[in-house]
User: Fold this.
Amino acid sequence: MQCKDLTLRRPFSIHQAYPSTGEDSSEGGEIALLFKVAGKGTLWLSQLQRGDKVDVPGPLGKGFGIGPISRNLLLPAGGTCIAPLVFVAQRAGSQHSITLIHGAKMARELYPLSSLVALPHLRQRSNLSPLPTGVRFIPVTEDGSVGKKGVITDIVPGFLNWAGQIHACGPVDAYKAMADLTCHSGPSDESKLKKCQVSLEVRMACGVGAYYGCTIDTQRELKQVCRDGPIFELDDIIWQEVKI
Assistant:
């Protein structure tokens, strides 16, 4: 997304999507984005009013994929990186058992939950669509104010034997920690983590692979996040070389 007059576009994952409800389907539907103000670009975005226009090319690249035999889906997310995983949970079929783990520093930074799970001490209101019935939601806070105390990488190992596939979205340091689990796990756990897909977000100049500012090293070749990603297999990335 082009934010104001900033040179590089800001990457945003689709958080929720709503089809057109009008008679003219050519008008398209709506999408929802989830973000927090972290700089000039998101500050500008937060100040837009109804009817304002923004330049949004996309959707770009490749999204998460659910394997044909995967039934148990583990979705660990850190902070606002929960955005695409809610989308995955809503689009997964009824035959899937889903556990969504959301980590944040404190309770007020957790996903708006008032209509999703019974946490009476959280009184946030949201006009977002609820998670499908049956999705297990596990909040994790660093200060222990809600849910389990710690970070998401403390919780993930306990679900490795259960998960048939993992879709993760969070900071690079969390991915590196998950990759380390592969190196120190037993054969069973290792096979689970090799079914892990992760989302990388980088600022990009074009979004279509014409420039190389979003290039990363993988086990086979150099790839571009905007064109070949942003979703990659965890064990395909050479994490020691990732600088984003």
